């Protein structure tokens, strides 16, 4: 019987970890490397259990678990192991005439004791990936996995306790109560993945202690399909990116499609064809898709489908079974723009297609909505690609593919506006959990009297010249010519 | 207030329309605005020195050094570097993704709010604006009502130099700030106290608005007299300049207190005294070189700190005050009680506590017992001590053998950590502060990997596992059927 987590426990937890941090436990390169290697061992030795937990929690197919959670994590750990020395090294900064003679550098230091709150849809990836960043940067870290994926949460707690240094890395399982207690503490950083609604509460709690936050939220990621494209490949990628990634329950899932009235029949046909090729004639029975996570979300999605003027727009799928928490791969066309399904992040296997008179209109439609985490475009038209990349504001933009950018460690992964604040992956993870401390080394040679009172006109002139870095002027003043 | 609410609504609407029109995205527009800022400062140098004298009693040389000159240089740097800053950064993608390409472009957030402070009302208003404009945003400035002449000057002058459909100024105090904070901004930049910083961040949380908070803290100055004895005169000069030479100690990066070994304390004090006199003469009040305290309320706060009996007893120099002239004499304290208010609050005034230690190494522990400051200053040539300071303390920045000067170094990010702030700016960091770094990835429709798509089977699984591990050689062997893998 697990002990009930109380306020005193939260305080003790932070005190303990702070003591470890202050003692310098997490600062050494060796410690960080050891922890990262242990994480790698977890991936190597426990993949079947991870796959099993994900299947229990989400009905996730083995391939998705193996590739989109474990393999991605392995890559992330290996990258950190390879580059950590580099990341930890100070960056030299250029100094100028006004601060001469001086040398300057930027030193990365850990923030201290950080809190990672992860989500239920990719419970391993979204828990361990930020923890990799926290540990590489030398912090002590508390992880609170999502209670909506209980088997994963429990496995994470067991494995992390077994393998990692529990004087500096801990897992707290629980739900709203535990999270609230944790949020009352003072953290040096909070990293949250989840919904915008909770993101606001996290930031509000963080404000009390001036704790910086990274919020990886979501949004309605639009997919624009231009008629000038390879439709078959485009559609395959959209399907793999939507239903093939946790059945649409992913922050960068293609949420809805924008295309022209003229082209949409072809799009719908292509979708139907490829959907059948991927999932067969009875997608509800396909083992290659995750189920809906729980009955709350099932009801939420049902409500979207059942709304008046939406239910009659279904052109494919629409079947539901609450007992097994499955909703069929569903396509809708031209639902009202003020419907629930077009105003909330869908996070499920429903794909609305909105048709427009011409492609020009996509910019207004997208701009009229909160900024999404990702925006996708399928086209061969170079001008359209450029215009899209420059004018559509989103966390990230992918042309001619879906979601892959999250696997690229050299691209910052994060949102903007409602899809939010901060970014990570690769070195960006290390930076997210570091304070970049500016260090200036000055010498005693050369102390400009002009810096000090009493002030005079001469000093003012010299200062002006110095500020303008005007060498000629400086000499003129010094020599008394100005 | 209704009128103010309408003004804010209207201003925001206009700025959003301007931003949507795309005008502020053009590099040409941004450069024009930056040039206009430089022109505005050049044309109005005397007027600006005037308002700074009115608000703070600042001498024109100090005004130029800390504010006008600084702003002009910041705008010039932005002008010179903008073309470089806006260039997208290419990202190297792993081979797995060939032939996809990736890059990161900096895009403006949109409509940003800058709330500045009263102590450097010109530079703390214009410098963030320079960042916002270089990044292509529209911006609304609310300067502090505690520096009313500067605020009025900015409100009147900015519209005649800058694009006033994109850049606006509003005057007012906390009630105006409250109205502003109820709106949704794409970014908020605040300079001020931690107490208000918390309120700003809480308001921003409602709209998930990213914030940069430039706050403060007690910036300690370590004097390791063993290793800098040869240069002690410079040390004393720099500390004095850093305490009293810039807005009379009312700066976020002012020297707040000094840490020194007991054996050297009185020598230090005996060097500080003549230094103060060399700066300000026998009667600092009449020197014209010492800024005054900004308002009666701030004066009373400082008076209260000083009048604490334990603190008052520790005065070894100065201590005289003139409430009418809002003047406090450069004052030195020797070992005030460590639990006194003055040792637990950011002083923000011309009072310098000197705290003595048995051994200068204890300074590390002392600093760690307090919230992380914006800056740590250390006068030392001892490499071990330097290393300890760097690795065992945390602060926005560390400067060795000088004070305040890190502010002028464009290549260094300027910002705090913990209670001293969130985010950073100066130089290209200003540009980044007001930009969203958007990742852009482009795939090819020419090639396609069947293994990416359902229905899943063990071949595809193995393929993908190998591909993700970038075990390309094994992958080729696998595909050629030359090796079987059960990974």
From TrEMBL, chain A:
GO molecular function, one term: aldehyde dehydrogenase (NAD+) activity
Pfam families found in the cross-reference section: Aldedh (PF00171)
Protein keywords: NAD, Oxidoreductase
Domain of life: Eukaryota
Keyword field contains Oxidoreductase: yes
Reaction(s) the record says it catalyses: an aldehyde + NAD(+) + H2O = a carboxylate + NADH + 2 H(+)
Residues the record marks as active site: 216, 251
UniProt-listed CDD domains: ALDH_F3FHI
Domain Aldehyde dehydrogenase intervals: 7-439
Protein's GO biological process: response to abscisic acid; response to water deprivation
InterPro entries in the record: Ald_DH/histidinol_DH, Ald_DH_C, Ald_DH_CS_GLU, Ald_DH_N, Aldehyde_DH_dom, Aldehyde_DH_NAD(P)
Similarity comment: Belongs to the aldehyde dehydrogenase family.
Name recorded for this polypeptide: Aldehyde dehydrogenase
Organism of origin: Eruca vesicaria subsp. sativa
From TrEMBL, chain B:
GO terms under biological process: response to abscisic acid; response to water deprivation
Record InterPro entries: Ald_DH/histidinol_DH, Ald_DH_C, Ald_DH_N, Aldehyde_DH_dom, Aldehyde_DH_NAD(P)
Residue ranges constituting the Aldehyde dehydrogenase domain according to the UniProt record: 3-439
Keywords: NAD, Oxidoreductase
Domain of life: Eukaryota
Catalytic activity: an aldehyde + NAD(+) + H2O = a carboxylate + NADH + 2 H(+)
A Pfam family annotated for this UniProt entry: Aldedh
Annotated active site: 214, 252
Molecular-function annotations in GO: aldehyde dehydrogenase (NAD+) activity
Transmembrane segments: none
Recorded family membership: Belongs to the aldehyde dehydrogenase family.
Name of the protein described by the UniProt record: Aldehyde dehydrogenase
Species this protein is from: Eruca vesicaria subsp. sativa (Garden rocket)
